[in-house]
Design a protein that fits this description.
Blueprint: E1 9-12, H1 17-28, E2 33-37, E3 49-53, H2 59-66, E4 71-74, H3 84-105, E5 108-114, H4 138-157, E6 161-166, H5 178-181, H6 185-197, E7 203-208, H7 222-225, H8 237-240, H9 248-252
Parallel strand pairs: 1-2, 1-4, 2-3, 4-5, 5-6, 6-7
Length: about 280
């Protein structure tokens, strides 16, 4: 199998931390990239890439950027917890523009989803890819919506999509929770490459985490695209020991700190989601 896609790849959110690493890693493979972000690209643009400053709310520009592309790596939008009105435009309307562009071009989409789409699952409950959505904020809610949009576009229009529920993608883990959720930059780049080059994907979910033995997550579609993480948070276990918060809600749920943002309950919810 060739390691270079036959068509250009559109990368949104290119100016963010993950987008910048993906630009470097994929351009080094010889890929032709079209980069876009609402913020200026802070690095030299690789010779086999172009950058266009654009807002995801601008559907016409997104359509033009996607012309001739075979894959859209969608990392754009609001990437942390924000008020609903801040999330609404880029993460809901913007995603619609991405999927309409993919439908027109017959392109595949990799959607940068998040563990915050399932953040209110408890940490002692291992999850498979078909677990119930339990978003821990407006950001996580937009990611759950994004996965459902991909599912609809697959069944209604045949648009293939890979929904990567990214855990915590940093150069290194920074707290004890990340011993379970950490995704190395290199594992992320390899995942994007396999998602792009795989023969078929349908609409699927992959847990975006490295090979961490303390993981919260189990079954997903990684074997179908031929991806296996090569890095692990395990070597950081000793230095991360004890790096936990003092908030019992934050430590109870997989979403960590996002679960306590604007949290107003006076007591934790019952163990059963829908008590009778």
């Amino acid at each position: 199998m060739t390691s270079i896609p036959p068509k250009p790849v559109l990368l949104t959110g290119a100016s963010g931390n993950l987008g910048r690493h993906l630009t470097k890693a994929l351009s080094a493979l010889g890929w032709t990239l079209r980069l876009t972000d609402i913020a200026a690209f802070p690095d030299p643009v690789p010779h086999n890439a172009t950058f266009t400053k654009a807002d995801l709310n601008d559907g016409l520009t997104i359509l033009k950027l996607a012309e001739g592309c075979g894959m859209i790596l969608h990392f754009g939008g609001v990437s942390t917890e924000h008020p609903f009105e801040d999330v609404l435009g880029p993460n809901i309307r913007g995603l619609y523009h991405i999927y309409e562009a993919a439908r027109r071009e017959g392109a595949r989409v990799l959607f940068a989803s998040s563990n915050h789409a399932i953040g209110f699952h408890e940490r002692d409950t291992p999850l498979d890819d078909d677990c119930q959505f339990m978003p821990d904020g407006y950001y996580g809610l937009s990611k759950a919506y994004g996965e459902l949009m991909g599912r609809m576009y697959w069944f209604k229009h045949g648009v293939e999509n890979i929904n990567v529920r990214i855990g915590s993608s940093f150069p290194e883990p920074i707290d004890a929770r990340m011993l379970s959720t950490w995704l190395s930059f290199d594992d992320l780049a390899r995942l994007c490459a396999r998602a792009t080059l795989a023969e078929k994907t349908g609409s699927c979910v992959i847990w975006g985490a490295s090979a961490n033995t303390r993981t919260y997550w189990r079954r997903d579609a990684r074997d179908a695209i031929g991806w296996a993480p090569e890095d692990s948070a395990d070597p950081f276990a000793a230095q991360m020991a004890g790096r936990i918060s003092t908030n019992p809600i934050q430590e109870r749920y997989q979403g960590g700190g996002y679960t306590v943002i604007d949290y107003t309950r006076t007591a934790p919810p019952p163990a059963k989601l829908f008590p009778r």
